[in-house]
Amino acid sequence: MDIGKESVPNYYENFLVYSGEYYSVYFHAETKDSSSVNDYFESCDDVTQASLLFLVKRIADIGRIYDETKFRIEDRQNKIYCFKPKKERFFCFFFKGKKIITMSAYTKKKQKLDRHELKKAVEIRNKYFNE
């Protein structure tokens, strides 16, 4: 392993959520041992965790989620998608090698999309494609 190649995409390997026939889904990690989106997931109640895991398993095994109330594109330009298990939102994107990276999460408090959270997700996504 090249020391200079230690970039962001190498960190998510420790945070595999589920691997299916079509995709492997990961939580983004800031370091190899730390993931704020994983921490957020673990702080959610059991129903929310089970709902997200159901959606992750579905997209990984079947390749798609047809219900737009549970998974949809939120930013077409940057190709940011969102898992919507309950009132929580988990932003993600599709990455090379049939991987889906879940980058950030928040609890929806209003009817509209939280632009600050979307901006944060876009910045994380850009790191994967610029490194």
Give a brief outline of the structure.
With 131 residues, the protein is an alpha+beta fold.
Please provide a written account of the structure.
This protein is α+β, with helices and mostly antiparallel strands and 131 residues long. It has a single domain (7-130), classed as YaeB-like fold. Helices cover 34% and strands 26% of the residues. The protein contains four helices and six strands, in the order αββααββββα. The longest helix is centred in the middle third of the chain and has 17 residues, at 46-62. It is globular and about 35 Å long. Residues 1-8 have low confidence and may be disordered.
Task: Outline the secondary-structure elements.
Blueprint lengths: L7 H4 L4 E4 L4 E4 L8 H8 L2 H17 L8 E5 L4 E4 L4 E8 L3 E9 L7 H16 L1
Parallel strand pairs: 2-6
Antiparallel strand pairs: 1-2, 3-4, 4-5, 5-6
CATH topology: YaeB-like fold
How large, in whole angstroms, is the Cα Rg? 14 Å
Instruction: Identify the CATH class.
Output: Alpha Beta
Q: SS-based structural class?
A: alpha+beta
Total count of helical runs of at least 4 residues: 4
Tell me, what's the shape? globular
Structure characteristics:
131 residues; 6 strands; YaeB-like fold; 4 helices; alpha+beta; six-stranded mixed β-sheet; disordered N terminus
